[in-house]
């Protein structure tokens, strides 16, 4: 398949492809998404094929106007209204009972649907111009780190999708916060740019799904199918190291080798005797979120690397999202030193 690379001025071209049942990589403020008309089951099925995504993993439906939501859910729950008022447009996905218009391909056979109103202007212009909500997972090959630049999408999906719209670097850098409103109290399924404290500030009690921080066993029932799968994994093995700077540097330098890389804070790099890439500044969760997937992909470019010693982030605020992704990349292996 020929993949067209479009600029962010070619919105009309992108939306025409989408209206005709094609699939297009689009920028959002979180990560790049791979979009299709959410009402067109056949178009949505192409997304699963291109990504190699398991069919039981549902997609997020993206809207550009709050009124669009009434085609997706029959009723907007009160707590959804409150969250939408406060955080939309932005990096928050709400799970609610779905309307009949949403095809099974989108919801993977569940009776719920995930909805997000992105703040990225290019994303919103594309949705508006397409005239329909867009179903979109992250635009990476299933299992690899989510893409935060158009180049990442090219690397993973060129030749497999109709087009990619280049909208520059993603602001947040990690996928949206996902909360289900189907449970009482509502439950955080995936941490992201909107923090747990911010959600609790609006809703009061919010539970945290155990899969956010813990490994789930093979046959365990999960609230969000995406949690079952190994995610965000680069080619090399990631070992997460929980320690202060001195001990981290000491450990990495003691294990220095040509096949070893360090995934560290900006401030650590100058002390390390191995190939190192930083994923953000210490005590700055936002910069870590923005840099993490980019850094994992940078390390992957170095084909010699077999092991990555990653500095464990503080798991508070946005840091909870960074920690959640890193601990998955590390297969839940944490070295406490
Ligand atoms: O920021 C984001 O959310 C990006 C951009 C493109 O919007 N999208 C994204 O999509 O990260 P994806 O498919 O990579 O992650 C969606 C997650 C998956 O873990 C999926 O299992 C979960 O949301 N999900 C979707 N619909 C669900 C539903 N009805 N019930 C439970 N979990 C759901
Ligand atoms: Mg994804």
Description:
The chain has about 325 residues and is an alpha/beta fold. It has ten helices and 16 strands. The strands form two sheets. The chain has an eleven-stranded mixed sheet with strand order 1-8-2-3-7-4-6-5-9-10-11, with helices on both faces. A hairpin with a 6-residue loop joins strand 2 (about 25) and strand 3 (about 35). Helix 1 (about 10-20) crosses helix 5 (about 120-130). The longest helix is centred in the last third of the chain and has 17 residues, at about 285-300. The protein is globular. The N and C termini lie far apart (about 50 Å). The mean pLDDT is about 95. Threonylcarbamoyladenylate binds near residues 95, 107 and 136.
**Main pleated-sheet profile:** 11 strands, mixed
Give the SSE order as H and E letters.
EHEEHEHEHEHEHEEEHEEHEEHEHE
Secondary structure: helix percent: 25-40%
Return residue spans where pLDDT drops below 50 for at least 5 consecutive residues: none
Q: Give me the number of helical elements.
A: 10
How many E-type strands?
16
| Shape designation | globular
Distance between the termini: 50 Å
Overall mean pLDDT stands at 96
Give every kind of bound small molecule, once each.
Answer: threonylcarbamoyladenylate, magnesium ion
- Rg of Cα set: 20 Å
Beta content comes to 15-25%
Secondary structural class: alpha/beta
Largest sheet: spatial strand order: 1-8-2-3-7-4-6-5-9-10-11
